[in-house]
Amino acid sequence: METRHEMRAGPVRGSSTSRFLNPCVVGFVVVAVVVILAVTIGLLVHFLAFDQKPYFYRSSFQILNVNYSEQLSSPGTREYRILSERIESLISKTFRESDLRNQFIRAYVVKLRRDGNGVRADIVMKFKFTRNNNGDSMKKKIESILHQMLNNSGNLEINPSTEVTSITDQDAVVLFTSECGARSDLITLSEERIIGGTKAEEGDWPWQVSLQANNGHHCGGVLISNTWVLTAAHCFRRYPDPYTWTATFGISTKIPKLRIRVRNIIVHSNYNPVTHENDIALVQLNREVTFTKNIHRVCLPAPTHNIVPGSIAYVTGWGSRRYGGNTVTDLEQARVRIIRNSVCNAPDKYNGAILPGMVCAGVPNGGVDACQGDSGGPLVQEDSRRLWFLVGIVSWGYQCGLPDKPGVYTRVTAYRNWILQEIGI
Ligand code: ARG
Asked: Which of 154, 209, 258, 420 is most deeply buried (CB count within 10 A of its CB)?
């Protein structure tokens, strides 16, 4: 084929001695040059003027007129949320009224700390701008706008000599994962957040653990520190020996991102398999997990944390898709609503079997629920600052997804002090 082609093309081109003057060729060359130039200029203009890239900055505000209290030590408290939101809206308002209104994306308080008697707030800010803006001049602009704000920060009195540092995406990950409950969409301070379908993506539920007995998925679990996993007590009825168990991380149980052996298992001493009361256990990992964007801990609610009936929660796990089915290898999620205990105890529902240490969640007509193999896994809710809190642990239910038979979870707020007593967190 190729040989024949060359033989045919040869004589036609080779026979003309004036082929460079051929108007067709000249025209073609001119058109080609113009097209190449136009494309090059177009690309340059696009990259220099329109292609915006995200940049992260950090800062640390010393707040002088707020006294530090124990209430500010956990992101789950009202006080923590209110102060953080005040700081965030002050920063947002300032940038939205400044020259950088089109560059500013979001400011987030990643941590409140004690600073003398006052409070220090660690802040991450995200901007987007084009490559022709150099980072240093942007840093100066950001700093000068912040300084104007700090000199006139309303009823928050903030030390005006505050510095801004440009940080990498990786630095932002470290700042966010040193606190609890941030999904990867919050860590990148992305504007959109979508939880769709049933299949989870890597980083959607970074605290989800698969607890495996002899390397087979057996139960879910939730990472609550870099060495402790919270799960259900009933998971250990068949295999009580910690050496049987490993924990894996990442959305696939077939190709886990990380596997760690279990060192110790603490089952609630009053766990009752008949009533399912106190269906909670703590699993200690054999070594510390290094937190990443896709593997880190959930927030634990304060004992007083209000779990609002009717509010939305998500349950995640590798459990079966229907009662009696097989477990799955890719993590799935389900959106359910919290059901008040008195409603869940109605005669047509669980008829009094729901005890104060339990909480029900489901959807009115059934069809969305946890199932076999999801046990020990998390039921989580997002707060107004996009942090995720553990409200339940998958415990039991009558079959799966039936109408009037919602999932029953261990109510984590009821065991917040038990966790504190057992492991000090
Ligand atoms: N006990 C089950 C397990 O071992 C979990 C049951 C949850 N059932 C439900 N309908 N939500 O995996």
From this structure: 209
